[in-house]
Design goal:
Helix content is 51%, strand content 15%. The protein has 874 residues and is α+β, with helices and mostly antiparallel strands. Strands 1, 2, 3, 4, 5, 6, 7, 8, 9 and 10 form a ten-stranded mixed sheet that branches. Helix 6 runs antiparallel to helix 27 and helix 29 packs antiparallel against helix 30. The model has no long low-confidence stretch (mean pLDDT 82).
Length: 874
Amino acid sequence: MKDVKIKPPKWPLKLLSWFCKPYYKETVEGDLIEIYERQVAAHVKYVKLRFLWNVIRFFRIRYIKNLEDIRPKTSYGMFKNYFKVSLRSMRKNSTYTLLNILGLSIGIASCLLLISHISHQLSFDKYVQDGHRIYRLVNDRGSTNYSPFTPTPAVQQMLLEFPEIESGARIYGLYDVVLKMDNQFIKQNDMLSADSTFFDIFPTKFLNGKVEYALNSPNSIVLTQSVADQLFEDQNPMGKTVVYDEDAYQVTAVVADQPKNSTIPYRAIFSFPHDKWLTDGNWSGNNVYSYLKLKAGADPERLREKFLEFTEKHLSEELIAFMSEYDSWSDFLAAGNHRSFEIVPLMDIHLNHQRLTLNNPGNRNNTLTFSIIAVFILLIACINYINMSTAKSSLRLKEVGLRKVLGSVRKHLVQQFLLESVLITLVSVLLGVILAILVLPYFNIMTDADYGWRNIINLNMLGWVVAFVIVVGLVAGSYPALYLSSFKPIDSLRKEAVKGRSSRLRTVLVIFQFTVSVFLITATFIVFHQVQHVSSRDLGMNADQIFVVRNDDRLGNNYQAFVNDLMSSVHIEQLGALSHYPSGRIYDWSYLTMGENAVTLNPDNIFADSSALQTLGLQLVAGSFFQGMATDSTAVVVNESFARKAGWTEPVGQLLNRGRSTRFRVIGVVKDFILRNGQYNTREVIFRYASSNPEYFARYIHIRTSSDFVEALSVIETAWNKYVPGYPFEGFFLDESFDRLYAEERRFGHVFTSFSGLAIIIASIGLFSLAAFSLERRTKEIAIRKVLGATARRIMYHLVFGFLKLILVGAILAFPAIYYLGNEWLNGFDYRIVIDAPMIVLPILLLGAISISIIGLKTYKAAMDNPVNALKAE
């Protein structure tokens, strides 16, 4: 009875017989029954279920019937041995291994950071559905510097006449507002006004409300989630009202926040008012930004071909009526003028058209430069690694010979060397990723960005990293793996290393490193001097100690009382009112000179009072600046650039035309001054008297304060609160606003200099490693030279001179590239430096000094060693 009890169940054995190959079945079945009997004797619980589980565990590919045996070509034990040998080799050459890993990890970290920044710059508007069919409509006046504003009727008329267009929308903004809720004023920035068709072109996620009703009503407002949370907290914002400029707006929808890579980063959208100037509008005035969405398959080139005829049909009549100098459209064109429309792809705006973006504009040249630096850094790091891998591998000939004598085949040697190379690359990549994440906060400060670890660790980046590990690991390990393993054992044991091929390869790679290093150091000099050149440019005005007050239209009839209170304070030196502030967004208006050879000009148009000249510190060249002109609405003041472009030798008294019934008389000329970024040439500027047009009167009060800023601001804010109680006091210092104009150039300079410096450091690490290896190989040579009477100085000169020749060759190769590319980059600046001899020579001397310091230190130590120690080594 006991024998019956210990018999295993039959159906698991039948299962085993069903799937198991015959030549495994007897052995497996015997082992299973033996285990079962032991468990029964030990009174193990659920012994039959355990028996079934043990049978199921043998359901593997190698045991299943009708399947060929799948055996790994190299056993786990062999790979384990390769791994151990790799670790021993790395530990034996710990200094070189650490230098390799350090250089490679720094290069990878730098490259990852730069790629994150480049990817962000290239991603703008890529998220927009059907973004490749969306275009910005702009005014074309004969240059690629398109005017961003368009006539209000243009979009609606194009929808009627052009079958290629699916939808269109007009917007205005971005602008800052002060909303009123429950008798409280709340400032909001990045507001937009738009047509009801805006979401047809730029679809977004609606959290509340429906897209078809969002902007249909005249007084509607769509909030983003962040603004809705700020204004209404936990309440449902739908149907609630907010007050702006005495008008009540009803919340009709709440949408998701806009991504950071949008050229229209709105936070809320007002519906366009249904006023006549928007519904009907006129063709001679440019007041809105316009966007078009083409139908699928529509050819944008065919649409462009229709714009000239469209312009003549709709714009010519009003334009000729506006300009009295021309009797017909053909006369206008015959005079060399050009007027049409152009469409710019949405995805080209951020990097290629800075005037068209509503976000911080990008720069294609800067992005391309960062891409080149990323490639250079990675190449230098890889070259360091490949150089040292090929150099150190030549010392392992004896190891290769012994392995072959002991039975190792070439295939195993190839696997060993490749695994070792891939292992070092993999460790470097992991350290590089960690290093990139650790320095990411500092990189964000440098680039004024908000990148997170997901910008570095993502699927796209993972693919590149895996490819990098495989490619670099295989390339660096290919020389020892394929070349050294091909030697016969007797040649390897005799240490008959072939130096020529690997030595020539290292020489070529070192020259390339020096070429890149000279290029980067010289480029850093050029970038640094250009940024300094632009930043230190004379503005043509005195922007220091000027505080600009916004929203002065809120003062209303209290404006003069506000001015009187300020001027009575010892902390206020001067005060002037302007419609726009220097360094801000200023709109260009069209004017036409009178007489023969009339010239059309599009200057920046500013309304100003008579005190603006002294307040801004502008220099009057001729005439006057509105002194005693309170009733003269036709008086204007121009700058020198305007006078030059108009062709005037005596500007004062000249007449300008802006419409058949409008004439302006030039009463003064001011010296050119900077209104925008100092990298560009000074633009034409025209001043008109502020009180002559109340609509444009005094948008910004410019106040020159004393050196005691704190007291001056207190005086200004007290006066503001006195006349505009409860309304937020807003303002800024003009010099800080100008400073922000140069932020992009400074950021570019900091990033370029920092990463160029890292590239040079990586190259120096490689140079140090190579110098140390070279001296290690030539230890006996140095010892023999000393025994034969050579001095340490002579030995140092002999060894250093070889590297200096390579630097000179690298400098010669780098010069054409740096001169051409440097000038190409500088050509993007109207106000630029000239590449001269010191900018070329100094970097070469600097690189030579760095190289001599690194090589000389190792050479001096080797030259000062006792030659006996080297000669007795064998």
